[in-house]
Amino acid sequence: MTGDEIRARVPDAVAAHRLTVETVLQAGIVDRELKELCARAAAGEDVEPADERERAAVDWAVAIGYDGDAPWDRLHQHFSEPELVELGYATAYALGQKHWLRTWKGAQ
C-alpha cells in the first residue's frame, strides 16, 4: 500500500500532504537537494555534505532524527530564520512520513 493509498482514506490528509510536498519539499527558499540530503541523514543514511553549510544542515537533521542538540551558532552562520524554519520542517516531515508509512506495513 502506498502513502497516497493510505492518505486517500482521509481526503483532507491527501490535500495537506500535497500542499506540503508542493510548497515546502519541492519548492520553497531552501534548495530541494539540501532538503533531500537532510531527510536522508535524519533517516540514518550515510551522506557526504559538500561544504560547511551542508555539514551544519546535516548535523541538525541528525539531531532532529535522534533527539540531539542543534548546532545553532553554525546554523545561523549559514541560514536565515525563514530558511531554518523551512529546512527543519521539511526534515521533520520527511522523517515522520517515513516512520509513519513503515508502521502501515503490518496493516497490509
Description:
The protein has 108 residues and is mostly helical. Helix content is 70%, strand content 0%. Helix 3 (32-42) packs across helix 4 (52-66), helix 3 (32-42) crosses helix 6 (81-103) and helix 4 packs across helix 5. It is globular. The mean pLDDT is 94.
Topology readout:
Layout: H1 3-7, H2 11-25, H3 32-42, H4 52-66, H5 72-78, H6 81-103
Helix pairs in contact: 3-4, 3-6, 4-5, 4-6
Total number of strands:
0
How many structural domains are formed by the residues? 1
| Major sheet details | none
- What's the CATH class, please? Mainly Alpha
First CA to last CA: what distance? 7 Å
The best one-word shape is globular
Average pLDDT, rounded to a whole number, is: 94
Which fold does the CATH topology refer to?
AhpD-like
Architecture per CATH nomenclature, i.e. the level-2 architecture: Up-down Bundle
Class from helix and strand fractions: mainly alpha
**What is the CATH superfamily classification?**
AhpD-like
Which stretches of 5+ consecutive residues score pLDDT under 50? none
Give the SSE order as H and E letters: HHHHHH
Give helix % range. Answer: over 70%
What is the helix tally?
6
Q: What is the subunit arrangement here?
A: single chain
Write a brief structural summary.
With 108 residues, the chain is mainly α. Helix content is 70%, strand content 0%. It has one domain: Up-down Bundle (AhpD-like).
